[in-house]
Amino acid sequence: MRGTGKRRERTAEEMGPPNGFTMLPWLLMGMGAVSNLLHGETPDPWIGGIGVLLFNSLYISVVFRAFHRRSREAPATWWLLGTMTAVTLFLALAYGGPWLLYFPLLGLAAGSVLRGRRLAQVVLPLCVVAGAVAGYRDGWGAINVVYGTFISAMVTSAVLTLSETVKELRRTKEELARTAVEKERLRFSRDLHDLLGHTLSVVVVKSEAARRLAPRDIDAALAQVSDIESVGRQALTEIREAVTGYREGSLATELDRARDALSSAGIEPVVRQSGPPLAPRTEALLSWVVRESATNAVRHSHATRCEIDVGGTPERVRLTVTDDGRGADGSAAGSGLTGLRERVASAGGTLESGPAPRGGFRVTAELPVAALVSTELEPSE
To answer: What is the pTM of this model?
Structure first.
């Protein structure tokens, strides 16, 4: 059952945002007109057939251009939409009945292309024209045609506008995350510089004092040496605290480090992250897996591309690191991955490593969103 859920999730993710293909099933609204043609209920059927073919071709052209801003706003798109309007008017006036449903389809095409004020400026006159033609051909049935045309245009435009806004927000979120990582790196480098600069300055000064005092006052010199030892121990403690706080940062930070390390080694990094928020201990474990896997790829793989994929369900998170290098050679699955496998297992997860199906090497870690037990996170040597 869990495998089925994962397949469904992957399928939904692969579907992605709306695109031109999601607009094609609405062409089935025109099947009534096609049925009339096939049953010989349409005068001059060859004219109707050409009209259907021309309308469908124009509809497909318009909706596929609608999902790229440059092509959507190009003059050619307006010419296509205008031609589609003329064909719709001709078919509706000539045949009526089910042919009037081409007006809602025209509304769908207009809604996919138009946004904001332009939508109102086009759709309202279109609804008036649709109502007049449908009233002439179908009487009170014109109400349904007008309603369908209006709703088709407005809902389509609203949904696509929302989808574009979500994509823009995602891009902004990613940019903010990268900026936060850079700021954190700068903060840490400054903190470490200040800490080491102060400590080393004190050590140098006291070392010089001990050297000068040693020939004439050995006790005073030893006191300076003792101070140097105290300063060194205190500095070591402070550095460990600083580095520990930095290493236990977010998984996003570790992914960014892995991206930089791979790029520096001439390996193209491909990083994808999705899924629910993770508990700090789960993030820490996955960070160690990312670090160890990226290090192995840099040192041993001779790869040109490395993919890091983080995703999962509300209950479990899955991390996959795959490179296209020469695969396992006895060093890729060394003590580092062995130790990580034990830690991941003690947290209620699994870690598998070995040759990837298409060559190269793959590491896969799966963990509960919240780790089950406390685990030691220091990497094995």
So the answer is: 0.45
